[in-house]
Amino acid sequence: MGVRDEQKKATREKVLEAARDLFNDVGYEETTIRAIAERAGVSVGSVFTTFASKAEVLSHVMDHRLSDLYTEFDRVVPFLRGSTVDRLCSIFAIHYEFETRRVKLFLAHIAASYSPSIDPGVTPYGRNERLTDMLREVLTEGVRRGEIRPDLDQDVAIDVLKAVYAWNYRMAASSGGKGDASVMSAAMDQQIMAISDGWRPR
């Protein structure tokens, strides 16, 4: 890697770190590219030569965070035990515990995902392939164990689970961005139990 490439990489990391902190501290809407540049100690032009828009910056910030989260999951998932419901509850509890460390950042990600003017460079909430794959593995194993009926439309079930997970962040939003992972996990546990009634073998 040449000096120029190293400088670009360093600028990119500074911008992402500054944006992550600002999105979490003051929110997505209130954060400007100028504020990100000032926090990162770079010019506004440097931000725009690295990213096309603020929305793209947010998308890359979330990609980086998800990489950290799934490194954590790679260590934990092989040790998950219990029924299909138990394993799903554990997966979402880990997500809540991780995301509530920077809950305003995740709220910004959800909000940007539903914006009618969503930037093409943004990966919206719900398009997380790792989470989708993880949930599908648990559901498939549930079918194998006889806990889930074989004709379940897994794509629909996964969409419902992800929608409920995001919906519970309303509690964090209504409390001024103070997410309580245990409260949201408890709500999700009840919701998963209710959802599971629809996939039990008849």
Low-confidence stretches: none
Oligomer: single chain
Relative helix content: 55-70%
In whole angstroms, the N-to-C terminal distance is 60 Å
Q: Indicate the CATH topology of the largest domain.
A: Tetracycline Repressor, domain 2
- Write down the secondary-structure element order: HHHHHHHHHH
Strand content: under 5%
* Total strand segments: 0
Q: Tell me about the biggest sheet?
A: none
Q: Please tell me how large the radius of gyration is.
A: 19 Å
Number of self-contained structural domains: 2
Taking all residues together, what is the mean pLDDT? 86
Q: Look at the helices and sheets and give the structural class.
A: mainly alpha
CATH superfamily of the largest domain: Tetracycline Repressor, domain 2
Explain what you see:
Helix 1 crosses helix 4 (54-76). The protein has helices at residues 3-26, 33-40, 44-50, 54-76, 84-99, 103-113, 129-145, 154-167, 170-174, 181-196. The mean pLDDT is 86. The longest helix has 24 residues, at 3-26. The chain has 10 helices and no strands. The chain is elongated. 30% of the residues are buried. The protein folds into 2 domains: 1-51, Orthogonal Bundle (Arc Repressor Mutant, subunit A); 54-196, Orthogonal Bundle (Tetracycline Repressor, domain 2). Helix content is 70%, strand content 0%. It is mainly alpha-helical.
